[in-house]
Specification:
heterodimer; A: alpha/beta; Rossmann fold; 2 domains; 7-stranded mixed beta sheet; about 20% strand; B: alpha/beta; Luciferase, domain 3; 12-stranded mixed beta sheet; two-stranded antiparallel sheet; 10 helices; about 30% helix; globular
Chain lengths: ~400, ~350
């Protein structure tokens, strides 16, 4: 089948040669050799030419051949054909997620159409330019390039709604990033029968840190910065809460002193963000004092606010807007940690793997947290996200 | 606070040395009053200022807080009215809790300020809106509140628009004809006046030829800025179409109803005696000491007693031009509003939709 959106008000990014005519026969086998080759070349290209943006370098690194082949191996006896057409709706809060969504979809062999926000950050624009440059200069990867479409349109107009509907009816899978509101709204738009609706609703993430001596502080600080600095801490997988596991106050004080040192002039917020941050801080006592009074204390470390709390409420998590606020709790054992059901990532630092595994297996936790990674890797993308195996979902 | 005395103060005649010690003392008292009477306010202060009100400043709440929480310094039984800000269905609205005393005070202060601009007598009043905009008695919208509040200063209230926002030209002509020998009072929201009145009359090539009128308008320039309409253009087109009309914009918000800031002949907004404006730095929200620098507007008002809205950080940009020396002769601070702060780049998790 062919979907012709030539006369619809949409913009095609990437290349002037592309047209808004989509053919569901244009697919490749999952983990096709040419795809892996193209992506690993692209990875090298991004690492070299995207140097000024760490997140682009990280994306390049993710594409190294060895890594792609490791993923391939996990599916060696299944995932024989691509779904067909995958329609992706990318989030606006994480600049590079659109790219991983494309990569996983194309690795699976799908004709991939990704709708991106109309308000692109400079980083995203730069990233898209690099993609266009790479594929325009490497014609041998045209077969892979033919699977990639990035589009923009005014989705909140009648025309935009019509485009979303036609793409949804055309696609064999729809991938919705962007939280509860987006998921609810777009999921109401009908799809082709048997099509997959893959959704990523609101999530939050936490960090658990255990420090025993001074020598561990440097690493722990670096890892926290890596996990919360990008995307203004607004990615769902950036920790919003720190649990201090049996860690001396004096080590925590040193931790924050070092944090200040390392982030001086590193974190900055626009005026609107400063106000949003203030709104959240002023709301916090109202959100945290139910059902009983919480004992609260706030400290400012450069642009970051650390808020000591006795317990956490769902309201305080739901209202969190990133912008570098961390709720901080002291715990004596991992069992003290109570997670809400929409917890996604738990990063850990200074804790024995065996202890984490044990904790992970406790029945209660399995239902909630979906991902356990070492601190510093909160934002590292995985093809299994929020407990959803994207490769499985995008192939048959 | 003794309002019997405060209300008798001249609106625009006290200079800095006369106003500020008195104003600041009252504001500090008011902050302590809310600290005692509003548990939420106390929780916020205790959290952000280590358990007590700071001595060197009166902390401002972010005005957006009233969109999320019902903040009050009175018991539920004493709620007389809850006013809300305007907003489309998708936006959250501010909720302002008023007791009878606070609501009356707002009216009284507004009346005293308006007298300065309209004179002591009620004037025949043309409202540039449609009559259905005032509906729900318990919960008014900002547009409804504005019209309701202003209606007190006029009589023979005539609505210039039909419900579909078209001009009710019959009613308008009749009104102007009836009152052609006296000063009339015209009121409306800036965008509505421009879009549905001035522009439509201009399209029809109609000139009303009004002999003597005062037009007050409010509601913000945002939509007109988008259309690149300056205050000057607004005034000159308005005079062409309507006739001899003195035009005064005013700045105010539902969170501090009563203390409005009216634009003088020199096109600057003036602080009345019961309120004050502070500019905060865009870089860190600290107080801007110098005049003439654009920043975020904080409004302080002595009126709010039933809710802790005495010091509010807005999301509007403005500049304090000077104090006590405006060419119009009024004392006190005078300033201009430069529009809304650009919306925070929506980077929140629910941003697929932008």
């Amino acid at each position: 089948m062919i979907l012709n959106l030539k006369n619809s008000p949409l913009r095609l990014l990437l290349s002037k040669n592309k047209t808004a005519v989509f053919d569901d026969k244009v697919t490749l086998p999952p983990f096709y050799e040419g795809t892996i080759e193209a992506f690993s070349q692209l990875g090298l290209f991004l690492m070299k030419n995207g140097r000024r943006e760490p997140s682009i370098v990280a994306a390049g690194y993710w594409l190294r051949k060895k890594h792609l082949l490791t993923i391939k191996q996990q599916y060696h006896d299944r995932c024989n054909t691509a779904k067909g057409v995958a329609f992706h709706i990318a989030p606006g809060n994480v600049d590079t997620l659109f790219f991983y969504s494309i990569v996983v979809s194309v690795l699976s062999g799908n004709q991939t159409i990704l709708r991106i926000s109309n308000k692109l950050t400079q980083e995203t624009q730069f990233f898209i330019e690099l993609l266009a440059d790479f594929f325009n200069d490497h014609k041998k990867h045209d077969a892979v390039y033919a699977l990639i479409h990035i589009i923009q349109y005014q989705h909140d107009t009648d025309h935009g709604h019509d485009i979303t509907l036609r793409l949804s009816l055309f696609a064999d899978a729809r991938v919705i990033w962007g939280g509860d509101a987006a998921v609810a709204e777009i999921s109401e738009i009908p799809q082709k029968i048997d099509a997959n609706n893959i959704t990523f609703p609101d999530r939050y993430s936490v960090a658990v840190i255990h420090l025993e001596n001074d020598s561990e502080i440097g690493n722990a600080v670096n890892q926290l910065i890596t996990d919360i600095k990008p995307f203004y801490q607004q990615a769902c997988s950036s920790p919003k809460v720190i649990y201090w596991l049996d860690t001396a106050q004096q080590l925590q004080e040193k931790f924050w002193l070092l944090f200040i040192e390392k982030t001086t002039k590193q974190l900055s917020l626009s005026t609107s963000d400063l106000i949003s941050q203030l709104v959240y801080l002023q709301r916090l006592p109202l959100l945290l004092n139910h059902p009983v009074k919480n004992k609260l204390n706030v400290e400012k470390y450069n642009e970051l606010h650390k808020v000591d709390v006795e317990f956490i409420t769902l309201d305080a998590i739901k209202a969190h807007c990133g912008l570098w606020t961390l709720l901080s709790l002291q715990i004596t054992t991992l069992a003290d940690i109570k997670l809400f059901s929409h917890c996604q990532t738990v990063t850990t630092s200074g804790i024995d793997v065996s202890i984490i595994e044990q904790w992970q297996q406790s029945a209660k936790l399995a239902e909630t947290a979906k991902r356990f990674v070492p601190a510093g890797q909160a934002l590292t993308f995985s093809h299994i996200w929020d407990g959803i195996d994207l490769i499985d979902s995008l192939t048959s | 606070m003794n309002w019997e005395q405060l209300i008798t103060l001249p609106v625009y005649q006290l200079n800095q040395a006369e106003k500020m010690p008195l104003f600041n003392q009252q504001l500090v008292e008011l902050a302590h009053y809310h600290y005692q009477h509003s548990e939420n306010y106390r929780d916020i202060i205790d959290f952000l200022y280590q358990g007590k009100l700071p001595e060197d400043e009166v902390p401002a709440l972010a005005v957006r807080l009233f969109k999320h929480h019902l903040l009050k310094s009175i018991s539920t039984e004493d709620i007389f009215r809850i006013t809300t800000s305007s907003g489309t269905t998708s936006q959250q609205v501010s909720q302002i809790v008023l007791d009878k005393e606070n609501a009356l005070r707002q009216q009284k202060v507004l009346a005293t300020i308006m007298k300065q601009w309209l004179g002591g007598k009620r004037l025949p009043m043309l409202i540039i809106d449609h009559p259905k905009v005032i509906k729900n008695k318990f919960s008014y919208s900002a547009r409804g509140v504005g019209i309701q509040g202003m209606s007190l200063f006029g009589y023979d209230h005539t609505y210039a628009l039909n419900e579909d926002m078209s001009i009710n030209i019959g009613a308008v002509s009749q009104f102007i004809d009836k009152h052609k020998d006296q000063k009339i009072f015209i009121f409306g929201f800036t965008f509505i006046v421009w879009q549905y009145f001035i522009q439509k009359l201009k399209e029809k090539n109609t000139q009303l030829g009004i002999a003597d009128a005062v037009l007050l308008h409010s509601g913000g320039w945002k939509k007109l800025q988008d259309k690149a309409v300056s205050n000057q253009t607004f005034k000159s087109q308005l005079n062409t179409v309507l006739g001899n009309v003195k035009v005064h914009n005013f700045y105010g918000m539902v969170e501090q109803t009563g203390t409005v800031y009216v634009e003088c002949e020199a096109s600057y907004l003036h602080c009345p005696i019961w309120s004050d404006v502070i500019i905060r730095k865009k870089s860190n929200l600290a107080e801007e000491e110098k005049n003439g620098i654009e920043g975020i507007i904080q409004v302080n008002s002595l009126l709010p007693t039933s809710y802790p809205g005495h010091a509010l950080l807005t999301e509007d940009l403005g500049i304090i031009i000077g104090e006590d020396n405006c060419q119009c002769g009024k004392k006190g601070k005078y300033f201009q509003v430069n529009g809304r702060l650009a919306k925070a780049e929506m980077r929140g998790c629910s941003d697929t939709q932008s």
